[in-house]
């Protein structure tokens, strides 16, 4: 069995996929905090991978990591929400699991998945903006994922949108993901209402029609559109794909984003503003892309 | 003779180049204001092109325009500093000059030139940031210029760096080129000293050691580094190439930019920060790239 496992800021998700990208099995575990020992994180990964394998021999594992992976896919250099720091993750996990391991950034994995099976199949070029704990991003161009000269393309979340803005866990200030992400949604809701709810709870309230929750999501959506306008100015893709947990609320998020995009994009009346569509693969996209890379690597 | 002509916000520059990109002849005219009739602009172009041709028959002309050119290269859709609005420039100039005309965005032309003959020759990928009246940008990737799905990639100057910031001629607010360009340099110098000097005059003062002028250039340089940090986070190129008139001051501009880039780039200690180098071709790069495209188109 080939397994793809996605290591996000709050959970670890492993999947087995079919030839056409459908999820056949999955297993979930929770992610330890970034101050916890590395071994706890790798134990959680192992539980998820073994949960999917269910006793079958592993032919290959793809690991999708929410962090900076160096270009040859050996090492996680830096991960804002994870304990990995310059860790030789690929080799260690391959030894532990007795199987070939492919390691890549989670947003690159999700971009591969959306390109092969999802919302980006028909577009020559698209940008993926994945709103989870933070923002992961990916660029697809002429049918290929652009990983960057150092494997670090797509760190959209750490583009500065507010000079001297909110502090970010990465050490900088005013990063886009402080204004547009699951954590940003929690913060906006908390500041406006004084209630501590997590992102999925705010989303659930919004779907039930709660005005405060809807306004908080619209605020995130507006920042989504502004940031995407910057990316479109620079890159001019045919399509914008929005994924990640926060995107599950759909048009409550995407409509304000589309509006802000049209307002903030240079020369909007003189160009085709790229459509903003939800990711087709949902929160499993990183794991699906990792499984795809594991299989591609083997064959 | 093949001629390349660059149409910038303040001047029109036509060149003839050798097979290896050297400028053999050039002619300059001034650009009419953006409120002036289109015919005045095209008269200025014609004078410059004929000045270079000097009676020899035109085999092809490349036009490098400071504006949004639609992807098939027929029309200038929008140009912040020029009178062209949805103008079928290619066909009209080809008829007027009796020669094949190739039309492209000035920054794409400059990127072609730096890729073929200049600072980007050895790099697999680079971004070009051209500081003139505004900012023109270009992306080269795996040895090819990425023009965008709609031919509009590289409009770096209209990425928003300050929410509700300075008004831009494009109709938006807080655009990067309001903080980092020739016009921005004039504004910063004027605000700090109350003196009305143009960009080249401020640059000349800075080279002579004037502290106010140096500080104004360092301010522009810091904004250059911040904006480039955003681009590197998104795109992760191997190299950053800075061109345009303002870049003629060299390290007075580029050192503050390098410093700000290292400070504002996500995970800088965990990655190779791309080198920031001056464009090799100077202010002729757009015209050189246009001449290259004219010759490539013919042959």
Mean pLDDT of chain A, to the nearest integer, reads 94
Distance between the termini of chain A: 13 Å
Supply Rg of chain A.
Answer: 18 Å
Q: What is the element string of chain A, with H for helices and E for strands?
A: EEEHEEEEHEHEEEHHHEHEH
Q: What portion of residues of chain A is helical? A: 25-40%
Q: How many β-strand runs of chain A?
A: 13
Tally of separate helices of chain A: 8
Question: Major sheet of chain A: size, sense and barrel closure?
Answer: 5 strands, mixed
Proportion of residues in β-strands of chain A: 15-25%
Q: Which chain pair has the greatest contact?
A: A-B, 46 and 47 residues
Strand order of the largest sheet of chain A: 3-2-1-4-8
Shape designation of chain A: globular
**For this entry, what is the oligomeric state of its chains?**
homodimer
Q: Which regions of chain A are unreliable across 5 or more consecutive residues at pLDDT < 50? A: none
Q: What would you call the structural class of chain A?
A: alpha/beta
Describe the protein.
- Two copies of one chain form a homodimer.
- Chain A contains eight helices and 13 strands.
- Chain A is an alpha/beta fold.
- Chain A has a five-stranded mixed sheet. A five-stranded mixed sheet of chain A has the order 11-10-9-12-13, sandwiched between helices. A three-stranded antiparallel sheet of chain A has the order 5-6-7, with no helix packed on it.
- In chain A, a hairpin with a 2-residue loop joins β10 and β11.
- The longest helix of chain A has 25 residues, at 211-235.
- The radius of gyration of chain A is 18 Å and the shape is globular.
- At the A-B interface, β10 and α6 of A face β10 and α6 of B.
């Amino acid at each position: 069995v080939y397994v793809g496992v996605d290591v996000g800021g709050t959970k670890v998700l492993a999947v087995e996929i079919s030839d056409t990208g459908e999820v056949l099995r999955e297993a979930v575990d929770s992610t330890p905090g970034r101050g916890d020992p590395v071994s706890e994180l790798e134990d959680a990964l192992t539980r998820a991978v073994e949960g999917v394998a269910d006793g079958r021999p592993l032919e290959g594992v793809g690991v999708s990591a929410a962090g900076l992976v160096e270009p040859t896919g050996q090492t996680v250099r830096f991960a804002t929400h994870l304990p990995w720091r310059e860790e030789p993750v690929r080799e260690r996990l391959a030894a532990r699991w007795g199987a070939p391991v492919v390691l890549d950034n989670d947003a690159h994995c999700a971009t591969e998945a959306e390109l092969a099976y999802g919302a980006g199949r028909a577009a020559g070029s698209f940008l993926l903006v994945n709103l989870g704990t933070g923002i992961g991003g990916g660029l697809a161009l002429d049918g290929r994922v652009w990983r960057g000269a150092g494997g670090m393309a797509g760190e959209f979340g750490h583009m500065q949108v507010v000079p001297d803005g909110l502090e970010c866990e990465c050490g900088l200030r005013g990063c886009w993901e402080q204004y547009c992400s699951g954590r940003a949604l929690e913060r906006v809701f908390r500041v406006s209402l004084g209630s501590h709810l997590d992102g999925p709870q705010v989303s659930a309230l919004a779907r039930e029609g709660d005005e405060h929750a809807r306004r908080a999501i619209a605020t995130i959506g507006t920042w989504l559109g502004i940031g995407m306008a910057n990316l479109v100015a620079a890159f001019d893709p045919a399509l914008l794909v929005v994924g990640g947990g926060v995107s599950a609320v759909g048009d409550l998020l995407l409509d304000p984003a589309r509006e802000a995009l049209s307002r903030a994009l240079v020369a909007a009346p003189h160009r085709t503003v790229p459509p903003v569509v939800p990711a087709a693969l949902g929160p499993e996209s990183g794991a699906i892309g990792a499984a795809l890379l594991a299989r591609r690597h083997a064959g």
